[in-house]
Amino acid sequence: MAPSSSFGTSPAQRRGVAVTLPPLILHPFADAAGPSRLVESSRASLKLQGLLPAGEATREELDNALLEGRYSELRMLFYVGKDLTRWIEQCLEFIGRNQDRMPHGITYQSFASLLVQHAPAAVEAKLRKWGVADYKSIFSRALGLQFLFADVPARQYLADEFVRNYFRYADQLFNLRQNECDFTSVATGDFTFELYSSGEYSRMLERSWGE
C-alpha cells in the first residue's frame, strides 16, 4: 500500500476531453542475479523472523542475504524512478508549451500524484498484466529514491540499517517532496497517458517508420 499523504492540492478544472500526455516508457531494470537475490532475501527474512527453519545458516549469513536482496530492490527502484522522473519532466515541458489552455498551478507534484494515486485504468491493467500488483508503493518509493540519490551508490557506501529499511526512508522522502508546495491535482478525467515497455515502444516506432 502506498504511503498516505497530507499534501495540499486543488483540483484541476474539468474540460470534458482528457489531454493526452507523453507516454510513460519503462526500461528493463533487473540484472541477471537480481531475481535470485530477491528470493533469497525473502527467505532469509522469514528465517530471521522464525517463520521458516534456519537450517545450518547463521544469523549473520541470513542477515547478509537479506541486505543483498534489499540492495537489489533499491537499485531496481532507483532505475524505475529515473524513468518516472523523465516522464514527469516531459509532462512539465508539455504543460509549458501549452500554458494558455492548461490549469494554473500544475507542478512536479501534480504528475507524481497522478502516477501514484490516479493512474489511468488502462495503465493499472497493464501493470497487473506485467505482474505488478502494488504499483503505488513501487512508484512512490522509486520517486523518493530519486529525491535522495543522483546515481545508485555502491553498496559499501550505504549503512546496513539504511539498506535494511530503505523503503521506509523512501516513503518519507516521497511524502516530503509532495509536501514542498501546494499544487493543482490532475486526474484521469483531465489527463491521460499510455504505458509501454521500452522494447514495446521501440517496435511501435519501427512499425510507424515502415508505414
Shape descriptor reads elongated
Q: Percent of residues in beta strands?
A: 5-15%
Which structural category do the helix and sheet elements fall into?
mainly alpha
Main beta sheet strand tally, sense and closure: 2 strands, parallel
Helix count?
8
Oligomer: single chain
Give the strand order of the largest sheet, numbering strands 1, 2, ... along the chain.
1-4
Rg estimate, integer Å: 19 Å
H/E element order: EEEHHHHHHHEEEH
Global mean pLDDT: 80
In helices, the fraction of residues equals 55-70%
Amino-to-carboxy terminus distance: 43 Å
Counted beta strands = 6
- Poorly predicted runs of 5 or more residues: 1-8, 10-14
What's this, in brief?
The protein has 211 residues and is mostly helical. Helices cover 56% and strands 8% of the residues. The strands form three sheets. The protein has a two-stranded parallel ribbon.
Give a quick set of tags describing it.
single chain, 211 residues, mainly alpha, two-stranded parallel ribbon, elongated
Could you walk me through the main structural features you see in this protein, from its secondary elements to its overall organization?
- The structure is a single chain.
- The chain is elongated, with a radius of gyration of 19 Å.
- The longest helix is centred in the middle third of the chain and has 39 residues, at 59-97.
- With 211 residues, the chain is mainly alpha-helical.
- The protein is built from eight helices and six strands; from the N terminus they run βββαααααααβββα.
- The termini are far apart.
- The strands form three sheets. A two-stranded parallel sheet has the order 1-4.
- The protein is 56% helix and 8% strand.
- The model is unreliable at 1-8 and 10-14 (pLDDT under 50).
